[in-house]
Amino acid sequence: MPADAPETKRQATLGYGAQLVFYNRQAEDREAIARQLATSQGLTLIHPYDDLRIMAGQGTAAMEFLQQIPDLDLLLAPVGGGGLLSGCSVVARALNPAIGIFGVEVDVGNDTYLSLQNGERVTIPLPQTIADGIRTTTPGILTFEVMRQTLDGILLVNDAEIWQAMQFLLWRMKMLVEPSGAVAVAAVLSGKITVAGKRVGIVISGGNVDAELLKALM
Amino acid sequence: MPADAPETKRQATLGYGAQLVFYNRQAEDREAIARQLATSQGLTLIHPYDDLRIMAGQGTAAMEFLQQIPDLDLLLAPVGGGGLLSGCSVVARALNPAIGIFGVEVDVGNDTYLSLQNGERVTIPLPQTIADGIRTTTPGILTFEVMRQTLDGILLVNDAEIWQAMQFLLWRMKMLVEPSGAVAVAAVLSGKITVAGKRVGIVISGGNVDAELLKALM
User: The pTM is what?
Assistant: First the structure.
């Protein structure tokens, strides 16, 4: 887990019985650390997004949407490594070929946007954003291939727009959502896509908000 | 609206286009004020709970529960005037005669508990509690009759137990719930009823939490 992960995320993870190993986002390679731990302790490595089973599991969010609303016009989801979005995109495209599917990422963390534009995976510098859960620098190998084939596009939002969305979610929807989880709501509220008259599904994912961030939000 | 209603409730109500009229809980009779306004301005009075249509509408919460989980063992809901609970109770009892149905109120605001015990509506002094949304002093005429015929009982919780439930809901469930809305969760978390091995439906209703209360909650 990044050493700067929210305290609530640490506590919740410990509460589920995990042993935490921290790393420095700027200086260390978490995949190398994980591989070394797996080898030395005989552990099974489960990649957080670049694994077909993880992608399929996260895609059940889209399945629930389309079971309830089969003729959904649009589906929006946050994109970090692309596990959630690629899983949702496969499911939604299969069940409703005409649906519009968009991922949403932070403007300064637009690695998936650039990768789709270039037709191959692009690596960007570590982005500075309040959306700490999606500070990836490149999409996954498997997730990129799925997104390339099934997505309609990527929408970009900035930190101020995320902030507005989090406040709306807290005070009007009564939901405590972390910055990364609120990006797709931010895209709609800030007018990045036309939704008038359409049935729109928005995936809101992640509620790791520290007391300090919540204070600022108030 | 009580003059001490949460600021977020005022703002949300104004946002929906309402004209607000305030009254003093201790000194004034809101039903008399409402009747007078209705007469002088030719308005239609809609009682917040003692109206069969309001009760039926609120009962759709239980209908959704039982459509998803037909063999629910227990259903718990907050009780103020009894609109939500009586509506839910009629629906749940009709769809699943064996279900256990319990209302939850604050120990110092136990007007429904006492009324059911006495077999007739009891009026108590205005209770002092953080659960401002259910500070009723007597159940409704219609709601009491329905609750008398369909409920299994009333559970009582105190302010400290409500507080614990609100914190759990905010930090682990990521839901901002007002004190009155969290009483049924408080009843379960504080062990007022045995839930082990049972399928339990809990109605969580109301998210009018002011910034001041949220600060205290943190």
Answer: 0.88
